[in-house]
Amino acid sequence: MAPTRSEAAEACDAFVVGAGMAGLAAAIGFARAGLRVVSAGAPERLGQGRTVALLGPSVDFLESLGVWPAVEARAAPMRGLRIVDDTGSLFAPPPIEFRAREIGRDVFGWNIENAALADALGAAAATQPGLVRVEADVAAFEFAPARATLTLADGRAFAAALVVGADGRASPSRRAAGISVGARRYPQRALTVLIAHARPHGDVSTEFHTRQGPFTLVPLPAAPGAPNRSSLVWAMSEAEANRRAALDDESLAREIERQARSLLGAMRIEGERGIFPLARQSVARLVATRLALVGDAAHAFPPIGAQGLNLGLRDVKALIAATATSGDPGADAALEAYARSRAADVLFRTAAVAGLNRALLADCAPIDLARGLGLAALGAIGPLRRLTMREGVAPLLAD
Ligand SMILES: Cc1cc2nc3c(=O)[nH]c(=O)nc-3n(C[C@H](O)[C@H](O)[C@H](O)COP(=O)(O)OP(=O)(O)OC[C@H]3O[C@@H](n4cnc5c(N)ncnc54)[C@H](O)[C@@H]3O)c2cc1C
Questions:
Q1: Cβ proximity of 4 and 144 under 8 Å
Q2: What CA–CA distances, in Å, run from 133 to 129, 162, 174?
Q3: Is the dihedral of CA 103, 106, 111, 115 positive or negative?
Q4: How far apart are CA 271 and CA 229, in angstroms?
Q5: Can you give the pTM of this predicted structure?
Q6: pLDDT tens column, 365-381
Q7: Where are the alpha helices (DSSP H) in the chain?
Q8: Which of 25, 127, 131 is nearest to 68 (CA)?
Q9: How many angstroms separate the CA atoms of 23 and 319, rounded?
């Protein structure tokens, strides 16, 4: 008699759906913890002017996975953060600047091109003992109390004790497990581009708060022929995004320089641009039978304050801690422990990012006053400054 599909399935301890940055980090981490791991999905190597600002604990985690040394030279340190209220509000405080040394750190974090980090994670995954990479997508999921069965688009089947849903915002694993998701689209898009500029950034990231959202310049390391480089994430209305997408490089560079108040001097666009819709998503549960969600599958919000992947890597670290040493990594108790450990951090970050974005868009005097007073207090009150910086870099709620 021919075996049924689940009898013929290859067995593993952890099956990671999605080979984005959160998924590859999870696959490497579980394999380094001694589990038999399968990682499925095509490599996600996003260019489009995208970089990721990684905070200190994320870099420590990548270091523990053996990934960071391969990319460190391609990342730029962020030693300072400048915030400029450019909303035109009557209550705009003067620009404020935070320095990592105020909280006894050398850097707040590091900024790196997505493609460079994705390549390093891909290379580490390819040589990690205990980890099998398959590039096919998962076509079907069956979650049962004893184990999960996954069928790939190429027909192969796997049985896993734990499925890690690292399959991004649309997350087919989340849908298959029946986890509901609340989503909100904002009337904004983010333009992303890499820039070469005349003046040095001094390892300081600058965030202009405009009425259409933040305009954030983040340091990048020098490249041949370009000693001064930064990445830009510019949130704006959909109409402005469409207009700017049609500009030639020189005209766009001039608009960027004007918005940056010529802080970094004349600018030149490097390579391709990206345009991304801004949205927020929250899930009803982080876990279901034999499934744990991590990264953008678990939460998504506008790119404000370098939160998305940093939160995703904290998910991965917490999931490995909660499940890898339990005899059965997909047992309900281990999954519940993971969900409990992440609830406050995810809720707080999602609310904080959404709140700041709403406050910028509001154009309403009482909200402007509250936002102006808040920023002025952050600039002037030492203990509050330091608490904010510490919470931004190494959140207490994540512990
Ligand atoms: C403009 C912008 C700037 C940002 N800047 C920062 C920043 O500075 N710092 C920061 O921390 N975060 C930042 N983020 C957020 C960060 O980029 C994301 O949080 C992160 O890339 C999400 O990674 P992920 O692996 O969870 O998801 P994704 O990158 O979406 O990967 C999911 C993967 O799953 C795959 N997949 C889907 N379905 C299947 C299937 N059935 N089978 C197999 N694979 C499947 C997809 O193809 C994809 O490759 C930014 C985001 C944007 C838009």
A1: no
A2: 11, 16, 21
A3: negative
A4: 12
A5: 0.91
A6: 666 666 666 666 666 66
A7: 5-8, 21-32, 56-64, 68-71, 114-127, 172-176, 238-245, 249-259, 308-323, 332-361, 365-380, 382-393
A8: 25
A9: 12
Give me the half-sphere count of Cα atoms (radius 13 Å) on the Cβ side of residue 238: 6
The residue nearest atom 42 of ligand 1, judged by CA position, is 137
Q: What is the pLDDT of residues 314-369, one digit of tens each?
A: 999 999 999 988 889 999 999 999 999 999 988 887 777 766 666 666 566 666 66
| Residues, the chain | 399
Q: Which atom of ligand 1 is nearest to the CA of 44?
A: 49
Q: Which residue has the tokens 């070469």?
A: 196
Taking residues 245-250, report their average pLDDT: 94
- The Cβ of residue 82 has, within 10 Å, a number of other Cβ atoms equal to 17
Query: For residue 316, which phi and psi values (nearest 5 degrees)?
Result: -60, -45
Local structure of 35: helix, strand or coil: coil
| Ligand 1 centre distance from Cα of residue 149 (Å) | 24
Tokens found for residue 48: 């489009």
Interatomic CA distance for residues 52 and 317, integer angstroms: 18
The residues, ordered by sequence, that sit 6+ positions from 250 with a Cβ below 8 Å of its Cβ are none
Q: How much distance in Å is there from the Cα of 309 to the middle of ligand 1?
A: 7
Which atom of ligand 1 has the smallest separation from the CA of 297?
A: 26
Task: Give the whole-angstrom CA distance, residue 200 versus residue 333.
Answer: 52
Q: What 3-state DSSP class applies to 74?
A: helix
Output the CA 51–ligand 1 centroid distance in Å.
12
Residue 204 pLDDT exceeds 60: yes
Class of domain 5-179+280-398 (CATH, top level): alpha beta
Give the distance (Å) from ligand 1 centre to CA of residue 20. Answer: 6
Res 377: pLDDT: 62
The pLDDT tens digits of the residues spanning 261-292 come to 999 999 999 999 999 998 889 999 999 999 99
Residues at CB less than 6 angstroms from ligand 1: 17-23, 40-41, 44, 50, 52-53, 137-138, 166-168, 172, 190, 192, 233, 276, 295-296, 303, 306-310, 312
Whole-number Å distance, alpha carbon 234 to ligand 1 midpoint, is: 18
Residue 325 has a CB neighbour count (10 Å cut-off) of: 12
Q: How many helices (H) and strands (E) does the chain have?
A: 12, 19
